[in-house]
Automatic annotation (TrEMBL):
<dbReference type="GO" id="GO:0000052">
    <property type="term" value="P:citrulline metabolic process"/>
</dbReference>
<feature type="active site" description="Proton donor">
    <location>
        <position position="159"/>
    </location>
</feature>
<dbReference type="GO" id="GO:0006525">
    <property type="term" value="P:arginine metabolic process"/>
</dbReference>
<dbReference type="GO" id="GO:0016403">
    <property type="term" value="F:dimethylargininase activity"/>
</dbReference>
<feature type="active site" description="Nucleophile">
    <location>
        <position position="257"/>
    </location>
</feature>
<protein>
    <recommendedName>
        <fullName>Dimethylargininase</fullName>
    </recommendedName>
</protein>
<dbReference type="GO" id="GO:0045429">
    <property type="term" value="P:positive regulation of nitric oxide biosynthetic process"/>
</dbReference>
<comment type="similarity">
    <text>Belongs to the DDAH family.</text>
</comment>
<dbReference type="InterPro" id="IPR033199">
    <property type="entry name" value="DDAH-like"/>
</dbReference>
<dbReference type="Pfam" id="PF19420">
    <property type="entry name" value="DDAH_eukar"/>
</dbReference>
<dbReference type="GO" id="GO:0016597">
    <property type="term" value="F:amino acid binding"/>
</dbReference>
<keyword id="KW-0378">Hydrolase</keyword>
Length: 269
């Protein structure tokens, strides 16, 4: 499915100031981030790597700054006010370096973290959390009118993609916990299309990356039971990586990269 074919990834090196947030071992987190960047390159992506910004401790979690689909970028408005400056750099990179059309959110009261936006390849779901609101969901719907867009209530302290991500074409990865299962039921009621579901014993295993035909999930040390489920149920290439430190302050794998399919790049291949 073309929706999960990507040409580029935008990442931001991890600032050591991240250690001021949530008991993170910043050096270990930086090593994990560097391994993730190497993995993205191994999977065929051109990686645009931004320098660390010590003034913005959470800037490595670039997923929250924009929603990119079909070669167009909607600049988000993170719900945490101290993170809003992160969008300035991302806007420049997407516009100047990757030559993407940029859409801005017009509603001053709209709030949107990219970690609350799930694109299934057929439709959008937007989690209504402490970081994203109805105005943010309307901005996604307006930016990508060719796709249905459904707002979903999620636990206030969780991003939607902490609970559910795409593990392959039409395949939802979801944790077995009560919160994740309740969100899944809402999603299934509201969805325009039908999806298969892979339920994982550890909730933290649900945040995966599916790109260019490969599923990237967390390591056996972090999710031993779910690692076995992936091995038993997934018949396409898989890669695993430990992101235990990064995940203390983010959705997990998806938070640290902004995946882009640059259509002009594809035409020139």
């Amino acid at each position: 499915m073309a929706a999960f074919r990507y040409t580029h990834a935008v990442v931001c090196r991890l600032p050591l100031s991240l250690a001021s947030r949530g008991g993170v071992d910043a050096e270990a987190a930086r090593e994990q981030h560097e391994r993730l960047v190497r993995l993205l390159r191994e999977l065929g992506l051109d990686v645009v790597e931004l320098p660390a910004d010590e003034a913005l401790p959470e800037s490595a979690f670039v997923e929250d700054t924009a929603v990119v689909c079909n070669g167009t970028a909607l600049i988000a408005r993170p719900g945490a006010e101290h993170r809003r400056r992160e969008t300035d750099t991302i806007r420049v990179v997407l516009k100047k370096e990757l030559d993407l059309p940029i859409i801005e959110m017009s509603d001053a009261n709209a709030r949107l973290d990219g970690g609350d936006v799930l694109f299934t390849g057929r439709e959008f779901f937007v989690g209504l959390s402490q970081w994203s609101n109805e105005g943010g969901a309307r901005a996604v719907a307006a930016a990508f009118p060719e796709y249905p867009c459904t707002p979903l209530k999620v636990p206030e302290s969780k991003h939607l993609k902490t609970l559910i991500t795409m593990g392959g074409p039409d395949l939802l990865c979801v944790g077995a916990g009560k919160e994740a299962q309740e969100v899944l039921k809402r999603m299934e009621r509201e969805a325009t299309y039908r999806y298969e579901t892979l339920t994982l014993p550890e909730d933290e295993a649900a945040n995966v990356l599916y790109l260019n035909g490969t599923l990237v999930h967390r390591s056996i040390e972090e999710i031993p039971q779910s690692f076995k489920v992936f091995g038993d149920k997934i018949d396409y290439p898989r890669r695993s990586i430990n992101v235990c430190q990064l995940a203390k302050l983010s959705c997990g794998l998806s938070s640290s990269c902004l995946l882009v399919r640059r259509t002009r790049h594809l035409r020139n291949l």
